[in-house]
Design goal:
The chain has 276 residues and is an alpha+beta fold. The chain has one domain (19-260): Extracellular Endonuclease, subunit A (Extracellular Endonuclease, Chain A, 3-Layer(aba) Sandwich). The chain contains 8 helices and 13 strands. The strands form 4 sheets. Strands 1-2-3-8-11-12-13 form a 7-stranded antiparallel β-sheet, with helices on both faces. Strands 4-5 form a two-stranded antiparallel sheet. A hairpin with a 4-residue loop joins strand 2 and strand 3 (70-77). The radius of gyration is 19 Å and the shape is globular. The chain binds 2-acetamido-2-deoxy-beta-D-glucopyranose.
């Protein structure tokens, strides 16, 4: 009997250990409707699943492309709150460097001064501040924007470079900003909970001497729950070279993404939100 019990305990520990490694976003399913991330069509060759952790809690989730050094998408719950973001504080992600015990985003200077990483080690699989300083016509585009999260810590956490893509400056300051502020505000009226996934489609060109991919498109999708029921959904997409955003239904957006991802069907929100 004792043997059996021990075996059972051992088995369940192994299973837990196993699922921690294999299950994407095991520590932060709460940012996805039904706890289910988009299907694997969006996955890059060298993915990293990041539960964005800052000051001991999780604020959103990001699928990161270690080759292109840009996020594929960030997923979060829309809880707009005013208040200001940090002033020129940017974080990078220790989990992308090597095996280490650091489980939170951190400033480059802290990783270098206190944890003895080199800048080259950090730069190996992620973009750093100097990459964005070297770009022209492109600015730091948040996927999960500061203004869509409520607490001071959550807002701070959006300033990790793993949540940032090189975004056409006129789009970032223009129509995309209007979509984030005005369109999201209007469309989410009456929603109890709004799940959002905002992504970047990898492009064919790179900036900063081939270090950082320049996305061809920026897109966003939202699923609105009234009570606990998904009641409506919507999407938007923009070419990353012009100041123009298109409003789409969720179905139209998923179809556009299918076209941009080689004809494989993309499913956001566990196929449970209205596509019309
Ligand atoms: C998208 O829809 C919103 C709200 O329905 C509207 O205010 C906005 O002007 C539309 N944007 C575009 C680019 O058509």
């Amino acid at each position: 009997m004792l043997w059996l019990l021990l075996l059972q305990v051992l088995a369940s520990c192994l299973w837990l250990g196993h699922s921690e490694v294999v299950m994407p976003f095991a520590s932060c399913p709460q940012f996805f409707y039904g706890g289910t991330p988009p299907n694997n069509v969006l996955e890059p060759k060298k993915p990293a699943w990041i539960c964005q952790r800052y000051r001991n809690s999780y604020h959103f989730a990001t699928l990161y492309d270690r080759d292109g050094r840009i996020p594929v998408y960030s997923a979060y719950i829309y809880q707009p709150g005013s208040g200001i973001g940090p002033e020129s504080v940017w974080f990078v992600e220790p989990q992308l460097i090597s095996k280490n015990n650091l489980n939170e985003m951190e400033r480059e200077s802290v990783l270098i001064d206190e944890h003895k990483f080199t800048l080259d080690q950090i730069k190996d699989s992620q973009a750093v501040r100097e990459d964005y300083d070297k770009m022209t016509g492109l600015s730091r585009g948040h996927l999960s924007p500061c203004g869509h999260l409520y607490s001071k810590e959550s807002k701070m956490a959006t300033f990790t470079l793993t949540n940032i893509v090189p975004q056409d400056t006129s789009l970032n300051n223009g129509q995309w900003n209007i979509y984030e502020l005005k369109t999201m505000h209007e469309k989410s009226k009456g929603c109890t909970t709004t799940y959002v996934i905002t992504g970047a489609v990898p492009g064919n060109t790179y900036v900063v001497e081939g270090r950082v991919n320049r996305p061809s498109h920026i897109w966003s999708a939202a699923c609105c729950l009234v009570g606990t029921q998904p009641k409506k959904a919507w999407g938007a997409i923009a070419g990353n070279d012009q100041n123009k955003v298109e409003n789409l239904s969720l179905g139209e957006l998923e179809d556009r993404l299918r076209g941009l991802y080689g004809g494989r069907t993309v499913t956001l929100f566990n196929n449970a939100c209205p596509r019309q």
